[in-house]
Amino acid sequence: MDNKYAITNTSHRWFQLPVRQAAHYNAWDILATAKLYEAVTKELKENGQWEFYQTEVRPLVPAVLEMQARGLPFSHAVQAQLRTRYRSELTETDEAIKEAVDWPDLNLRSPKQKAELLYSRLGFKVMKRAAKTQAPSTDQEALVRILRNLRKKDEPHRATLEKLFHRSRLQTILSRYLRLYSDDGRLYPRIKLYGAETGRFAYADPALQQFPKEVRGVVEARPGYRL
How much of the chain exceeds pLDDT 90, in percent? Predict the structure, then answer.
């Protein structure tokens, strides 16, 4: 592809692209798909999957495309309520942690101070390090590893560790699942046909199937309909 038409900024939204650039991309996409057709068809037949594709997968494509175009109803009101609730719970959790460790000025948004709290003040064993810097990690996975490998001498600080883990989860919910926006009251995730090894559908942008049960209420059926 000519570099002047290449999409170099991955943060671009599709609808923001110039028409000529989008058309050029689409033309190359169609050509690439056409070239793949023969090879993919051959592979499906050789692996005994051609009949399954023809009878189970292909007939679903129109329905999935229609589902994707229609989108899912999204409630800004429910999202706002949940955001208020979890922000309040996050503040309460922060205050409880500060009181438990007697560190009133502790900034729990600072990875450096969290690392000092976990590994210097509370004395937990470092179970994970950052890939680039090799600094002791304070992310949710690191907290899970510490909790799973708690030593006898760590027991007095278990309650504080559990609060830190709870705080990390609250922050993830707020930043990842409660920052969605919709102009028309609907979400339009990309639907992956057979997107999981089990053969189920999967969603992307956003990945709705990963939403914690506490926040799934942001997607709600309109009156008279059911999800």
Answer: 70
Cβ pair 89, 169 in contact under 8 A: no
> Would you give the end-to-end CA distance of the chain in angstroms?
43
User: CA separation (Å) from 50 to 32, 43, 45, 60, 62?
Assistant: 21, 9, 5, 15, 19
Of the candidates 33, 24, 35, the residue with the CA atom closest to the CA atom of residue 1: 24
- Give how far Cα 146 sits from Cα of 70, 97, 98, 118, 132, Å: 44, 17, 20, 10, 21
Helix (H, G, I), strand (E, B) or coil at 203: strand
* SS3 state at 126: coil
Cα angle value 200/203/205 (rounded, 5°)? 165
- Measured CA to CA in angstroms, residue 145 lies from 9, 121, 129, 139, 168 at distances of 36, 18, 12, 10, 14
For the whole model, what pTM was predicted?
A: 0.72
Which tokens sit at 106?
Answer: 């502790």
pLDDT tens digit string along 196-224? 888 888 999 889 888 998 899 999 888 89
User: Residues 57-113: pLDDT tens digits?
Assistant: 899 999 999 999 999 998 999 999 999 999 999 999 999 999 999 999 999 999 999
What are 187's strand-pairing partners? 72
Closest residue by Cα to residue 74 from 210, 211, 177, 220: 220
Question: What type of residue sits at position 104?
Answer: P
Whose tokens are 């926006």? That residue is 181
Structure token pair of residue 32: 């690439």
